[in-house]
């Protein structure tokens, strides 16, 4: 999650609040730990819980998510066995979460893909998906700092459901699209509105792709753990106040349609990330507009100073932290 001066920003994607319990769907993560050399692959033992080291369970597994996804069912079956076994769990406090996917071939984004977000702007609902991109260098982990660039004074928040591709494809039919999906995660499409809307010929790319402008994670929830990706609550809170609250059923173009559309133009590869759009409530359309600032935030009303949070859990919100800093 992002932090603004004097504000705490919490983003949540969830289908339902269930009692806190052992998680049997797979929540794949990339992590580091002081006693381990380099990034490793893991599984959250439960929502918001510790991490099972998949590379310790099977040293032949790759150590990056993209390589893991490229091997398809062979590696997924190993992860399922690890989840079913009684394995040691690294305490959450002893690991550093990376983005669940790093250095993908592409980060595809979709503009104005929520009906209620279009109404907020008083613009017509698009008849075709509006596609733009972020560079992969904008990706950071859910606990990493988000750098507010000196070139922009209008940095804004956008909570989004992200789709992670698991199988290579081109000219994919909508009816076949879910076979190409590995799972889902939460994304923050941090946006410099001055560069998006006023500069660079009003092309969106530069305003969307500053370094650190794409926090992801913490977990890639496999698609079998998400009953309906188009019936998820999606919301964002600032200092306890809900500023974005909607449901993914408001998407104009659903996951299958987006994959079919994008794959007309480009080949999709394992690890590619598709940000599916944001609901209403962003800062730029508030009166007056509200933008993110540098610093740690007050938690709630009169609460202790604390960083902001970025959350993902389709059942119990698992919260991670980022803070905004100046470049």
Description:
- GO terms for molecular function: metal ion binding; oxaloacetate tautomerase activity.
- Residues 106-295 form the Fumarylacetoacetase-like C-terminal domain.
- Keywords: Metal-binding.
- Its cofactor is Mn(2+).
- The longest helix has 12 residues, at 73-84.
- With 327 residues, this protein is an alpha+beta fold.
- The protein starts with a strand and ends with a strand.
- A hairpin with a 6-residue loop joins strand 20 and strand 21.
- Residues 1-8, 16-23 and 296-320 have low confidence and may be disordered.
- Strands 3, 4, 5, 6, 7, 8, 12, 13, 16 and 19 form a ten-stranded mixed sheet that branches. Strands 1, 2, 17, 18, 22 and 23 form a six-stranded mixed sheet that branches.
- It has helices spanning 54-57, 65-70, 73-84, 115-121, 193-197, 205-208, 255-262, and strands at residues 3-4, 7-14, 27-32, 40-44, 51-53, 96-97, 107-111, 130-134, 139-140, 146-148, 155-156, 159-165, 181-188, 191-192, 214-215, 220-222, 233-238, 241-247, 273-275, 297-298, 305-306, 308-311, 319-322, 324-326.
Describe the structure concisely.
It comes from Equus caballus. The chain is of the alpha+beta class.
Stretches with pLDDT under 50, minimum 5 residues? 1-8, 16-23, 296-320
Rg on CA atoms, Å: 19 Å
The separation of the N and C termini measures 18 Å
Structural class: alpha+beta
Number of strands: 24
Q: Tell me, briefly, the overall form.
A: globular
The fraction of residues in strands falls at: 25-35%
Average pLDDT number = 86
Report the major sheet.
10 strands, mixed
Helix content: 10-25%
Count of individual helical segments:
7
């Amino acid at each position: 999650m992002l932090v603004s001066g004097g504000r705490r920003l919490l983003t949540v994607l969830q289908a339902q609040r269930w009692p806190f319990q052992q998680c049997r769907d797979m929540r794949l993560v990339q992590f580091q730990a002081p006693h381990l050399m380099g990034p490793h692959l893991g599984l959250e033992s439960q929502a918001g819980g510790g991490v099972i080291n998949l590379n310790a369970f099977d040293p032949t597994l790759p150590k990056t998510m993209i390589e893991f996804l490229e091997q398809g069912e062979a590696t997924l079956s190993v992860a399922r066995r690890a989840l079913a076994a009684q394995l040691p769990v690294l305490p959450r406090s002893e690991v550093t979460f990376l983005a669940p996917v790093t250095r993908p071939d592409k980060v595809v984004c979709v503009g104005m893909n929520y009906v209620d977000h279009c109404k907020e702007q008083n613009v017509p609902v698009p008849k075709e998906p509006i596609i733009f991109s972020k560079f992969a260098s904008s990706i950071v982990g859910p606990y990493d700092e988000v750098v507010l660039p000196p070139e922009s004074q209008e940095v804004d928040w956008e909570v989004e459901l992200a789709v992670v591709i698991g199988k290579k494809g081109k000219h994919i039919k909508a009816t076949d699209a879910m076979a190409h999906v590995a799972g889902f995660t939460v994304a923050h499409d941090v946006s410099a509105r001055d560069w998006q809307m006023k500069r660079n010929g009003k092309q969106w790319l530069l305003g969307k792709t500053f370094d650190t402008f794409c926090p992801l994670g913490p977990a890639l929830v496999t698609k079998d753990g998400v009953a309906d990706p188009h019936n998820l609550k999606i919301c964002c809170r600032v200092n306890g106040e809900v500023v974005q609250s909607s449901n993914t059923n408001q998407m104009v173009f659903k996951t299958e349609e987006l994959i079919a559309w994008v794959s007309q133009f480009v080949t999709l590869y394992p690890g590619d990330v598709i940000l599916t759009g944001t609901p209403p409530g962003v800062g730029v359309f508030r009166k007056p507009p509200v933008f993110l600032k540098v610093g740690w935030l007050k938690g709630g009303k009169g609460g202790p100073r604390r960083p902001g949070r970025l959350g993902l859990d389709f059942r119990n919100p698992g919260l991670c932290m980022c803070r905004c800093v100046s470049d």
